[in-house]
TrEMBL record:
Protein name: Phosphatidic acid phosphatase type 2/haloperoxidase domain-containing protein
Coiled coil: none
Keyword ATP-binding: no
Keyword terms of this UniProt record: Cell membrane, Hydrolase, Membrane, Transmembrane, Transmembrane helix
Compartments (UniProt record): Cell membrane
InterPro entries in the record: PAP2/HPO (IPR000326), PAP2/HPO_sf (IPR036938)
Residue span, Phosphatidic acid phosphatase type 2/haloperoxidase domain: 87-194
Organism in which the protein naturally occurs: Streptomyces stramineus
Topology in membrane: Multi-pass membrane protein
Record lineage: Bacteria, Bacillati, Actinomycetota, Actinomycetes, Kitasatosporales
Amino acid sequence: MTKIAAGWSEGRLNVPGRGKPLRMKILNALRTGENRLAKRMASWDSPWARGLLPPVEDAAERTKLWWATAAVMVAGGGWRGRRAASAGVAGMVTAQVLSNGVGKQLIERRRPPKEWFWHEDVEDRPDSSSFPSGHTAAAVAFTAAVAPTWPWAGAVCAVPTALVAVERVHSGAHYPSDVAAGAAIGLAAAAVVRAAPRLLLRRLG
């Protein structure tokens, strides 16, 4: 699949052609605002950030957190837990395909500059495109797919999901817009998983 030309480099969107001055002003303003937000989030040095976010990152790596959560649901949640776990895993896998298999192949964006970050986590960033956040997409998809079947479990999952989104910016892995795009992909993936059985039944009927 052909990539869109290096669209975002260090947070800057390169619009083909001259474009209109107003459009360029809006894009530059958005870029500047996002960079400021990313730097502010990167500068957080509170005890809770130092103590909580790194373990969240480790747990979410390779979706270990969500696979473990699904296993707990299956083991202790009865039929509702099994159904919620199945939906969550299906949503998570769909989101990963959309974000990592499609999004990152279409849009090439560099990670935020390392000099913005004071901690060493920034050295462990992947080399893939920054856009979108695959971790956020998987987390949101899992939670959004679980919630309709088991609202209580979905509410519990929402807490680490929010922490994953914050951590992806704080660690230097992503810009805020990467995380926002990942969240949108996650919601879309959960919606697809919920709609798929009904669409399949219609086709079979």
